[in-house]
From TrEMBL:
Keywords: Glycosyltransferase, Metal-binding, Queuosine biosynthesis, Transferase, tRNA processing, Zinc. Residues 12-379 form the tRNA-guanine(15) transglycosylase-like domain. Binds 1 zinc ion per subunit. It is an enzyme of class 2 (transferase). Homodimer. Within each dimer, one monomer is responsible for RNA recognition and catalysis, while the other monomer binds to the replacement base PreQ1. GO terms for cellular component: cytoplasm. One of its GO terms (biological process) is tRNA queuosine(34) biosynthetic process. It comes from Candidatus Daviesbacteria bacterium RIFCSPHIGHO2_02_FULL_36_13. Zn(2+) binds at residues 324, 326, 329, 355. The active site is at 90 (proton acceptor), 285 (nucleophile). Its cofactor is Zn(2+). Its EC number is 2.4.2.29. This is Queuine tRNA-ribosyltransferase. It comes from the Bacteria. The lineage of its organism: Bacteria, Candidatus Daviesiibacteriota.
Amino acid sequence: MSNFKILHKDGKARVGLLETPHGVIETPNFNPVGTQATVKAMSPKDLNEIGVQMVLANTYHLMLRPGVKVIKSFGGLHKFMGWDRPIMTDSGGFQVFSLGGGMEEGSSKVVSSKNGKVKESPRPKLNKITEEGVTFQSHLDGSTHILTPEKSMELQLHLGADLTVAFDDHEYRDDAKHLLESIERTEGWAKRSLAAFKKLDSKQLMYGVVHGGTNKKLRIRSAKFTDQNFEAIALGGIYGTKKQMYQMIDYTLPQVSENKIRHLLGIGEIEDLIEGIKRGVDMFDCVAPTRRARFGSLYVSNNQTLSIGQSKYKADKKPIDPQCSCYTCQNFSRAYLRHLYLSGEILYHELATYHNIYFVTNLVKKIRKAIISNNLPNLKL
Ligand SMILES: [Zn+2]
């Protein structure tokens, strides 16, 4: 059951509240990704301090390691990872297609780009897709697994997330014929996901996923189907260019009920958050803030980033972003962070990730305030 309430609108942008078993989420909201039941380099204490409202964990990774049985024996993910606020899990669908190929040693020859020599290289095995589900090899040890809508729902129930995602198909190319086949498979799997949830007597809120790539007609069809069957709407699949993604949101959202929560899966760069929220998206998740931090890319005001490894920051006494009030910016200089980064120090990852997650969380809070005061178009980044 969805307990989502819209409190205010400014154009298409919405401010709302989503009630979950682990607390209320203020929307719009950005969720950092905790693939392995941890947001990399952040403790739950850090996330609480920053004001993160929900994290997303990956069913695919957790089913392979440590195994959902282990997590279930702790009473679910919240207790296992020491996080008592809302958690969302995905269906595993995206990862079985993108990662679950296993590795077959010495099975193909590739030309090394470094020296032009031909050498043996591991090649991913193909997944087998049937109407039943997806058979895949673990990317960790090559062991064979099958993920079906029923299995995904059972795993997500045992993980105990507050928000879950219906099992969906990601095996498509962006042409109308294959997209149609893929949507038909996703619709069949969606119905089986719902039936499995009913049978398991799960009370979790489940997102159905709108697919259709960049094809307007198919996106509309998929949006109508998802709205008819689900209480929560996620947009997923192939988005194309940024312009095509924004158009897709514009085609899709008018097809779904106003009072249902809408989540743009896997998106979270600053300008995409703003464009998505303006178009009526309520929720986002993305690895961008954590991944960027690991590679030295730190957010600063005016929709910019800086590369902390650059020599111009060698003796720079300023904080990462003079306008940021996070712990890192209140206490450390760019020069110190650059030194930690170049030295490969663990503390760099903590401080940099803290700043990036704080920056995005705080930005979304600012956007929320701007919507409440009908001032979104004038928001300064
Ligand atoms: Zn900061």
